[in-house]
Specification:
10 helices, transmembrane, cell membrane, BP-dependent_transpt_permease
Length: 290
């Protein structure tokens, strides 16, 4: 007699496989990004050498006393890489915080707009998004001064338009639901509706987007530092390390490889975390992939 497999087991197996993939993606992202965050945390309390210590000799190779060698000024490259990890994390977190505060506030306010005001605000957000983030950040930094704080502020303001448009779309979708109408009919005020119904329903998608914005902010800060518009010396941003090492890449490749690899690992890790969070937090995505 031929044995048949019960069809009821297939969905359960598919669901378990999808859950495993989500877990592995999130775990891999946490490991990659966690290593960089750990390096940044350690740099707050300990560094192998002072950031302005030039006693290591020019362009020496990796050795026991200088794990990655030294740059053209004799500074320890491992010390610079650790300092760069802290700057990258600070830039990412600071920019995302600014983008979240400005973007959520502006997005919620524009979601309540109607008619011509809605069209005007929507067009304004589209124009800001169409404007290159790095160019807008360069203009803001140039108008202030080349510091890490200016770079973080510039990147955060530039990214707030993206967050605001996403929040506007999500909030309008929530406001169209029947339970919002029922809440208004019962006399619930708009602030309580936003706090009790709107924000809890949009935060899963918002968290995923902010995780992606973190990676973009790190890349933007590296780009600004490469152009000399980021954290000034002796702070060693990864972008500044890449700029300084490009002339000596053939003789001392570690000066460019170390910050480049760390930058790639951090961005990939954060993107994997965002992908894992999207699959975990978004019910629609879970149903499609089940």
């Amino acid at each position: 007699m031929t044995r048949t497999t019960s069809p009821a087991k297939a969905p359960a197996t598919s669901s378990a496989t999808s859950a495993a993939k989500r877990s592995y993606t999130l775990l891999a992202g946490c490991v990659l990004a966690g290593l960089i965050f750990l390096l940044a945390l350690v740099s707050l309390f300990w560094l192998p050498y002072a950031t302005d210590d030039t006693s290591g000799g020019r362009l020496t190779g990796p050795a026991a006393d200088h794990l990655l060698g030294t740059d053209k000024l004799g500074r320890d490259l491992f010390t610079q890489a650790m300092t760069g990890s802290r700057i990258a994390v600070e830039a990412g977190l600071g920019s995302v915080l600014i983008a979240a505060v400005l973007g959520v506030t502006l997005g919620v306010l524009t979601a309540f707009a109607q008619g011509w005001l809605d069209d005007t605000l929507s067009a304004f957000l589209d124009i800001l998004i169409a404007f290159p983030t790095l160019l807008l950040a360069m203009l803001i930094v140039a108008a202030r001064s080349a510091t890490l704080g200016s770079a973080v502020l510039a990147i955060g303001i530039a990214q707030s338009a993206v967050v605001a448009r996403l929040v506007r779309i999500l909030v309008k979708r929530v406001l169209a639901q029947d339970y919002i109408t029922a809440a208004r009919t019962s006399g619930t005020s708009w602030p309580r509706i936003v706090a009790g119904h709107v924000l809890p329903n949009i935060w899963p998608t918002l968290v995923v987007n902010l995780a992606l914005q973190f990676g973009l902010a790190v890349l933007a800060e590296a780009g600004l530092s490469y152009l000399g518009l980021g954290a000034p010396p002796p702070s060693a941003s990864w972008g500044r390390m890449l700029q300084e090492a490009q002339a000596t890449f053939t003789t001392a490749p570690a000066g460019a490889l170390a910050p480049g690899i760390l930058l790639v690992l951090l961005v990939i890790g954060v993107n994997l975390i965002a992908d894992g969070l999207r699959d975990t937090l978004d019910p629609a995505t879970r149903r499609r992939r089940a």
